[in-house]
Amino acid sequence: MSVGNLNVALFPMEIKWEDKEHNLKFLEDALHNLHPDTDLLILPETFSTGFITGDKELVRGFAERNTMSTIDRIKLLAAKYNIAIAGSFIADTGGSIYNRAFFIEPSGEETFADKKHLFTMVGEHNVFSPGNSRLAVRYRGWNIAMVICYDIRFPVWCRNRDNEYDLLIAVANWPVVRVDAWNKLLIARAIENESYVCGVDCKGIDKAGFEYDGSSSVIDFKGKYIEVKQENSPFLYGSLSMEKLEKFRSKFPAWKDADNFSLL
Predict the structure, then answer these.
(1) Residue 31 included in any domain
(2) What are 129-163's pLDDT values in tens digits?
(3) Which of 149, 158, 198, 202 is catalytic?
(4) DSSP string, 69-118
């Protein structure tokens, strides 16, 4: 059975820092204009709060379990629009705080994994605990992996061994001052892993005054941009072809010569 195209929508949404209700309502309102053929909607990192570090107890006040309001509302939206929704939120499990990736399917099926590489330059490691596994899910015939922001700088963590994924999702709060690196890293991960890559950054200004410009893209397995922006829409759309991906991997099977390694 052939696998159909995967139609993705990227939402480089403008986040209002530390205002969860505003951000959730902003998302709900925007989805009224989502293209009906969408299979997968991708949100930025910590879409409901913005990327918050500093005082651990302040951050804890925004953290939720997987069964609380943020994920419950995402599940309702996924079912309503018959789409999967991916992003990350601030999570609390057993008293530890995590930057948690989520992939919620329209059926209510849920997959979670926590950010591995914490951004020490702003003290993320002093507030959050690191994850130890990469999100992996199979959805509508596609194998999908997901990483969060700083993770994209680490090619071993992102490595696609034996074509275990067809699409790598990267979600971020990546400021304008370093956005050129973000854009180049996404292309590099697509080329070296012979995979589609979808990268979604946010817009807005954080509490420290850093600006985010929403740099987001759909990149094919050759490192080429393929997204199309519809007029008067907040979303970026791309259609991913499994047929084209498989033909390229067969014609140019660099993945067969990849080095073996193990993570400690």
Answers:
(1) yes
(2) 999 999 999 999 999 999 999 999 999 999 999 99
(3) 149
(4) HHHHHHHHHHHHHT-EEEEEEEEEETTEEEEEEEEE-TTS-EEEEE-SS-
